[in-house]
Specification:
By secondary structure, the chain is α/β, with parallel strands linked by helices. The chain folds into two domains: 166 residues, 3-Layer(aba) Sandwich (Rossmann fold), CATH 3.40.50; 164 residues, Glycogen Phosphorylase B (Rossmann fold), CATH 3.40.50. The protein contains 13 helices and 13 strands. The strands form two sheets. A seven-stranded parallel beta sheet has the order 3-2-1-4-5-6-7, sandwiched between helices. The chain has a six-stranded parallel beta sheet with strand order 10-9-8-11-12-13, sandwiched between helices. Strand 8, helix 6 and strand 9 form a beta-alpha-beta unit.
C-alpha cells in the first residue's frame, strides 16, 4: 500500500502529534508513504529519524492555489499512491480535484464539510463526529470511525524535586494547549478549593500569560508549574497522582488514552470526547463543563480515596487495552484505508 499524506497543521498540537504517530506506525507496518508537511523542524526530524519520506511543503496563500495543487498531484503520481490522506480541514482544502488516487479526509473535530470537497471518503475520531459528517451530506458507506492513540517514549518519572513539588503532595497534571477551550481557568479556580494540591500544566499557547496572571491573582503561584510544551508526557504522567482534562470543548482528547495507558486515574469535564468514552465512576470521574466547584469536588474525592484512584486506573487501562493501543488503532486505520481504496473515487 502506498499513501500520500498532506498535513498543513500547526507546529504543535494533539492532532498534529497523532498524525505523526500514525504515520510512523504505518511505516513500521510496511506502508510506503510520502508526507507533504509544513517545514516544522521537530516534525521533519522525527520523520527523518524513522526513515519516512517527508518533504517541506508551502501551504501559504502566497503559494498560488493552481501551482500548489499541481505539486500535490505530482507527488501522488510520483509515489504511485493508492490513497491520499488529507489531515484536517486546512490540508483537505488544498487537495485539488482530479487526483490520481482516492482522497480520504480526516476529521479530528466537527469541521465544515465544505473544506473536503475533493475527498471521497472520511475518517472521524469519534462516532459523534462520524454522525456529524453523515448529517452534512456525506455517503454513510464512505464514513469511518478510527480513534486516536498516544505514543509516549519510555522515560522514568519526572523527579518532583526538579519542579519544586513536595513528594507527598497530591499532584494533578493537565496536558493541554493554553487556549480558552481547554478550560485551564476552570482548573485553576478548582485548584483554589484544594489546599495542599499541586498542579503541573504541560502545554503552551496564546492564553498562557493570561493563565499565569490568573494563578497569581488566586494566590496559586507557589503550587502551579507552567511547564511549556513537553514531549516527555509519559514521564509526567508517571509522576502525577491524577490526570485532569478540564476542557470546555474537546472532540476527543488523546490525553484520555494516554492516562489510561499509564494507569493514571482520570478526572474530566463532560465535553464531547470524554462523554463518549469515559464511563463515570468506572473509567474516570466526570463533572459538568465550566463548573470549578464540581471539578474540585471530583478531585477532592479522588485525592481522599486511594482505592477509588486504583480502581479508576485499572478500569481505564482495560479500556485502553481494548480500543486505544497503537496496535489496535493501526489495524483499524489499515482496514479503513483498504475500504477507501476499494470504494475508489466518488462519481
Amino acid at each position: 500500500m502506498k499513501v500520500l499524506h498532506v498535513i498543513a497543521g500547526a507546529e504543535v498540537g494533539g492532532a498534529e502529534t497523532f498524525a505523526q504517530d500514525a504515520i510512523l506506525s504505518l511505516h513500521e507496518r510496511g506502508v510506503a508513504q510520502t508526507v507533504l508537511t509544513r517545514p516544522w523542524p521537530a516534525a521533519l526530524a522525527r520523520y527523518a529519524a524513522a526513515g519516512v519520506d517527508a518533504r517541506p511543503f508551502g501551504f501559504s496563500r502566497v503559494d498560488r492555489a493552481l501551482r500548489r495543487g499541481r505539486r500535490i498531484r505530482a507527488a501522488a503520481t510520483a509515489l504511485g499512491a493508492d490513497l491520499v490522506h488529507a489531515w484536517m480541514q486546512r490540508a483537505a482544502s488544498f487537495v485539488p480535484a482530479a487526483m490520481p488516487a482516492p482522497v480520504v479526509g480526516w476529521f479530528g473535530d466537527y469541521y465544515d464539510l465544505k473544506y473536503f470537497r475533493t475527498a471521497d471518503s472520511f475518517i472521524a475520531v469519534t462516532p459523534d463526529i462520524t454522525r456529524h459528517i453523515v448529517a452534512a451530506g456525506a455517503p454513510p458507506e464512505r464514513c469511518f470511525t478510527v480513534n486516536t492513540f498516544g505514543t509516549m517514549p519510555d522515560a522514568p518519572p519526572v523527579d518532583r524535586a526538579t519542579l519544586d513539588t513536595p513528594p507527598g503532595a497530591p499532584l494533578l497534571l493537565v496536558l493541554s494547549r493554553m487556549h480558552r477551550v481547554k478550560g485551564i481557568d476552570t482548573m485553576l479556580h478548582a485548584l483554589a478549593e484544594l489546599p495542599g494540591a499541586y498542579l503541573w500544566l504541560a502545554g503552551d499557547g496564546p492564553a498562557r500569560t493570561e493563565y499565569e496572571r490568573l494563578a497569581a491573582h488566586l494566590g496559586l503561584t507557589p503550587r502551579v508549574r507552567f511547564l511549556g510544551w513537553r514531549t516527555d508526557r509519559k514521564a509526567l504522567l508517571a509522576a502525577c497522582d491524577i490526570c485532569v482534562l478540564p476542557s470546555r470543548y474537546e472532540p476527543f482528547g488523546t490525553v484520555i488514552a494516554e492516562a489510561w495507558a499509564m494507569r493514571r486515574p482520570l478526572v474530566a469535564t463532560s465535553a464531547d470526547g470524554a462523554r463518549q468514552y469515559v464511563k463515570d465512576g468506572a473509567t474516570g470521574l466526570l463533572c459538568p463543563v465550566e463548573d470549578p466547584p464540581a471539578l474540585a469536588a471530583c478531585l477532592r474525592r479522588a485525592i481522599a480515596e486511594p482505592a477509588l484512584r486504583a480502581a479508576l486506573a485499572e478500569a481505564g487501562h482495560a479500556a485502553y487495552r481494548a480500543d486505544f493501543t497503537r496496535e489496535v488503532v493501526t489495524d483499524r486505520l489499515l482496514d479503513c484505508y483498504a475500504a477507501c481504496i476499494r470504494l475508489g473515487r466518488r462519481p
